[in-house]
Design goal:
The chain is α/β, with parallel strands linked by helices and 144 residues long. The chain is built from 5 helices and 5 strands. A 5-stranded parallel β-sheet has the order 2-1-3-4-5, sandwiched between helices. The protein is globular and about 40 Å long.
Length: 144
């Protein structure tokens, strides 16, 4: 039995940073996850179509340019509009605003709009890994 979950890793349209995507890909692969990395400056429709095509258990949106909040809201709304059936777990993280003082209300807004996790602080990696392992446990139960 293959206990690897599938993940689509993406970013927002305006984010041209690759190092965060490589880091997240390597981290998830170390934790036995198949990762489909879409790269930088990903159009909303590309992310949506990949979710529909790949049907992953997890979607990770990583952004470090400070625009993840506004463009993340657009992305989650389009995912919810376009993806039929059960949605995968969808999380977003990184530098989502240019002001760190915005993190609390950003987190609240993104969760309210449909993200299952928002990671914007120094505890983000352990928190993310906790969610990743929860998804894996549920996946293993489903395929067993």
């Amino acid at each position: 039995m293959d206990d690897k979950i599938n993940c689509v890793l993406s970013t927002i349209e305006s984010d041209s940073h690759m190092w965060n995507l490589i880091y997240m890909q390597l981290l998830m692969e170390e934790h036995n996850t198949n990762v489909h990395n879409l790269g930088v400056c990903v159009p909303v429709q590309t992310t949506v179509l990949e979710i529909i095509d790949k049907q992953p258990e997890l979607v990770v949106i990583s952004s470090v340019n400070g625009h993840g909040y506004t463009q993340g809201l657009e992305l989650i709304k389009e995912i919810k509009r376009s993806v039929k059936g059960k949605l995968p777990t969808i999380v977003i993280g990184g530098k989502l605003s240019i002001k760190q003082s915005d993190n609390q209300h950003i987190t609240k807004d993104l969760l309210a709009c449909g993200f299952d996790g928002v990671f914007v602080n120094h505890n983000s990696i352990p928190e993310f890994l906790f969610i990743l392992h929860q998804i894996k446990r549920n996946f293993i139960r489903m395929v067993a």
